[in-house]
Amino acid sequence: MESQLTILLPVAAVWLAAGVVADSLPRLRNTRMLRRRAGWLLVLCLTGVALIAVVLGGGLFSAGGAPVDSAASALILAAGPALVAAACSLRRIRRLWAGAGAFASAPATPTPYGLRAAAAHPLVGLPLQVTALAALPAVIAAAGTDLGADPGVAGPAITVGALTVVAIGVRHALRHSRFAERARPAAAPSTTTAGALHV
């Protein structure tokens, strides 16, 4: 049990850290900090994907009773959102990092709303945070408390988890929408309004 926990703890810690860093990105008010945090997030996300791949790969090639095999079975739930993070989030984070790097000559430049909207996109933070949430039950079970063993606990735990994912997704969507709205250029006055003003 302890060796399984030793395998799972770093995986959960990396994804939890990635989720926290991703959540802070849209709040950063200058491009230097945004680029730095986006770089951290890129490293954390790559590390998290690599750790899950190593554990799952180790589980495939190990004997049935090895700790890595148990850890791999416990991480199956986290593999889905980690795959989405690898396919979608990594590309967006890299583009965000490069976009903030365009302001390298003026690092104190306030972060444009366009970059903040990109940082708040649901596909940047949501897969990372869902992966962290999905890894938590594996860590809890490895620590000696199996939530799935008692049906009276498993049902509410699944419901709370699903509601948490929905709440996080809605929060990301609303925040992205708010920044995207501010990033739009002000609409030019219509010809009718212009004519009325001249009269």
Write up this protein:
The protein has 199 residues and is mainly α. The protein is built from eight helices and no strands. The longest helix is centred in the C-terminal third of the chain and has 33 residues, at 151-183. Helices cover 79% and strands 0% of the residues. The model is unreliable at 187-199 (pLDDT under 50). Helix 1 packs antiparallel against helix 6 (122-142) and helix 2 (31-61) runs antiparallel to helix 4 (76-101). It has one domain (2-188).
Rg over alpha carbons: 21 Å
Helix coverage percent of residues? over 70%
Distance between the termini: 82 Å
Residue fraction in strands: under 5%
Low-confidence stretches: 187-199
List keywords for this structure.
8 helices; 79% helix
Quick overview:
With 199 residues, this protein is mainly α. The chain has eight helices and no strands.
Task: Walk me through the topology.
Elements: H1 2-24, H2 31-61, H3 67-74, H4 76-101, H5 113-119, H6 122-142, H7 151-183, H8 191-198
